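Q: Got a minute? One more chain.
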Amino acid sequence: MRSGILLKRTIFKRSLTLKLYFTAGTIIIFVFLILYTNSLLKDIKKDVQIVPDLYAKFISLPADVNLESFLFQYFMSEIVPKIDYPIILADSLNKPYAWENTRIDKIAFEDLSEKDQTKLRRMMKRYKSQLNVIPLKYNLESDRVLSYVYFGESSTMKQLRYMPYIEIAMVVLFIFLGFYVFSSVKKNEENILWIGLAKETAHQFGSPLSSLMGWRDVLAMKLGKDKEMLKIINYMQNDLERLNKIASRFGKVGSTIKLQPVILHDLIQETIDFFQRRLPSFSQKITINFVSKIEDKNIKLDPDLIKWTLENLIKNSLDAMQKSGGEIRISAFEYKRNIYIQVKDSGKGIPKAMFKRIFSPGVTTKNRGWGLGLSLAKRIIEEYHEGKIHVESSELNKGTTFEVIIPED
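A: Always. Here it is, folded:
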């Protein structure tokens, strides 16, 4: 009961976290875009203000003022300190006489190198093609141009140009992170659910097992002289121990386990022997062969959980060959400080599209079953033993090879 309440609380907290993420993220994006847009508008206002200021001063000039001298002084004192983009002043014949932010020495045009003169001319031509040129006249009615102002693109304009891409990138990043958070929450909820289910299963096993053990002892006391009944009671004892072991395995799911040194070869052999005794019950002839190159390898692991994994893999192979029979070949070898265990069968195979999905809870290629065996095997190998498990190869109607990799250290 308590585990169910804790499960609900955990799922509620994680769902709340997801909702808060999307709410807070949406607000942050909107606030950022508003502040960013306002900042750009202020910069645009400053940039645009330069032009009317220049016109206002230019039109109000006395007729006897040296315009070229005035424009140069105004350019140096009023425009240059306020801009961060290239600007070129040219006379009525389009000859440059002042420039800024061009990476060209600010000396007389005649004293520039031919390369720099060509560069300035090209910049003026490019700005003209972009309509980034202002002809300065005495007044709006006059056709006489006294000077030209060529200007490049400001940092504000560049930001405006990239703004849609920035917005799209932010939205994509937000969606990606949201999807990642959602997937993580969903996966955590599934993990919590499976752990809760496993522990509840172990708990539910406990009471009837204790009761059955008690009844077994009663039968042993009352029928102790009957040899046939004693044999049956021994069978009951073996099955009860098996059930006890299953309950213990489920109880370990989600718990902290302590790894211990084990001769892995012997563990695999014990598991194979367990199935060898049950092979005659299959309608088709099935053989299990074991090829080992790790006879003396002492590996730190949880023997009960590793046996559970091997049992799931072998049981999976047996199910795949129930109608056709064949061979299960189990290989164990060492490579680069890792122990490899391969379980190969000659069964019906697995479609390539299911190689990864086959380890997800509820996914199975069988007509019957819950699809939990391989999911539990993956958890045992990857979470408790820091190893890997995957479909090494499979071909329809020819067989499948599962591979388990366990690090030695």
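A: The longest strand covers residues 326-335.
Q: Perfect, thanks.
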